[in-house]
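Example (one chain per record):
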Amino acid sequence: MKLCSIASGSSGNCIFAGTDSTSLVIDVGISGKRVENGLNEIGHTMREADGILITHEHSDHISGLGVVARRYGVPIYATKGTIGAIQACKSIGEVPKGLFREIEPDVDFTIGDISITPVPISHDAAMPTAFVLRQGKKSMAVMTDLGKFDHYIIGKLQNLDVLLLEANHDVHMLQVGTYPYYLKQRILGEKGHLSNERSGQLLSEVLHDNFKAVVLGHLSKENNYEKLAYETVRLEVDMADNCYHAKDFPIYVAKRDTVSDIIEF
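Predicted structure:
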């Protein structure tokens, strides 16, 4: 299996996930040109994609969806609530209705040789989900845009090989920053985003002997930076009440505006 962040952050998100025979794009929150250029960098094209998975309808996850859908005609997989919200979004233009494939939370579906589980998450969107992807005994997940996690989320992320996990903000930077009060409260709330600390705490709950790598994603441009997210998550793992340490596995930080290294396992 392969995982690669084409772009990740509060200004736009797009992830490639696939196998030797199946190519998927998760979210299209950047321009169609950037999506295609990013895929080309790792030896893929949008035209060969077997499906687009959409986590939710916020602009940093769908801003390029209309262009990509009209240009390439790739099937779009999303929940009923997300599809309705996308169709009501005028800024992305017309998305051909025949491309939508409605999926249900916690109901597995298959594209090519990849089995996909949509995992409902706590975020201020219509019907948001994260995704767990499996091929045989291999598995990975893209888990961003959630204000909280619980035993349900922890259970869904057990025994993964690779995890792309949100580390959106540093709480102190957010609190003293220039964002208006209502926006700070939204981000810090249960339907907002995971802080660096909470990201590390969630990661600590899903580590196991065969865990291969974590990619920290969806970093805020204004309230976080790569080294801070990296070091904070490492510290939380080292402090956790388990037998694992941050040095036991690679920790990467997804790039905001450039393609990150591809992870293949």
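Caption: The mean pLDDT is 97.
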